Amino acid sequence: MRQEEGQRVLVVDDDPTVTEVVAGYLGRAGFVVDRVADGRGALARAATHPPDLVVLDLMLPGLDGLTICRELRRSGPVPVVMLTARGDEEDRILGLEVGADDYVTKPFSPRELVLRVASVLRRSAAAGAEAAAGPVLRGGGITLDPAARTVTQDGTELRLTLREFDLLAHFLRHPGRVFTREELMERVWGWDFGDLSTVTVHVRRLRHKVEADPARPRLVATVWGVGYRFDGARERTGEAGG
Question: Cβ distance 70 to 63 under 8 Å?
Fold first, then answer.
C-alpha cells in the first residue's frame, strides 16, 4: 500500500549501503526520502525540510543518535524510529527513554522497517484523530489530555514518548481489564506481528514514570501468564464511568 503523498522521511545513517537500501524501499512505498550521513547534517536538514518521521542510526560520527533524538524532540513531536547495530536491551531502553517511538536492530529486513515506519505514522495520525474527540482521562492520580497530548500525575507533568502516551491512554480507557502483549501490540502499535519485547520495554519505562516504586507496581500490574492490567479507577470529564 502506498502512503499519502508528501509524507517525508529523513534517513540518518553513515553507512551508504544502508541508506541506499532503506531509501529505495521507502521510496517505492510512496515516501519522500531525505538522506543524511551525520548528526549535525540531520539537525540542519530537519530544520530546513521538516520530516514527518526520522529513521535514525544510534551510532553516528560527531553527534550520536541519542543526542540527535533529544534535539529533535525539543523542536517538536516528530516520530523517530531508532536503528541500532546491537540487540542489547540497554540500547533499546536508552533510545526509548530519549523519545524514540520504535527501534529496529541491525541487520534488519527493509520491508519490516517500512512497515514499522508506516505503523508509527499511522498511530501518530490516529492519535491526532482520537484527541480531537476524546475526553480527558483520569485514573490513579493521573490526568491525561488526549487533545493537548499532556499527562500529569498529582499535579506534576510527566514527559512521555509517543508510544508511552498511547499505551497509558489505552490502559486508562480500559481500567481493570487484562491485555496480553499480543493484544497491546495490535491495539497500541497497530501491528499483527513483531518482537513482543517491544511491549515489555515500554511497560517497564512507563512504570518508571508513573509508579512510586517501579519494582512494586500498583498501577500497571502484571498478571502472570497473561499480560498487564491498569488498576487505577477511571474517571472521564463529561462522561460517566463504565
Answer: no
Beta strands in 51-153 (DSSP E): 53-57, 80-84, 102-105, 137-139, 142-145, 150-153
Partnered with residue 75 across adjacent β-strands are none
CA distance 187 to 211: 23
Judged by DSSP in three states, 56 sits in strand
Of 31-35, 65-69, 186-190, 228-232, the one with minimum mean pLDDT is: 186-190
Cell of 164: 508511552
239 DSSP assignment: B
Contact between 168 and 210 under an 8 Å Cβ cutoff? The reply is yes
Q: pTM for this one?
A: 0.68
Q: What is the SS3 assignment for 143-198? A: EEECCCCEEEECCEECCCCHHHHHHHHHHHHCCCCEECHHHHHHHHHCCCCCCCHH
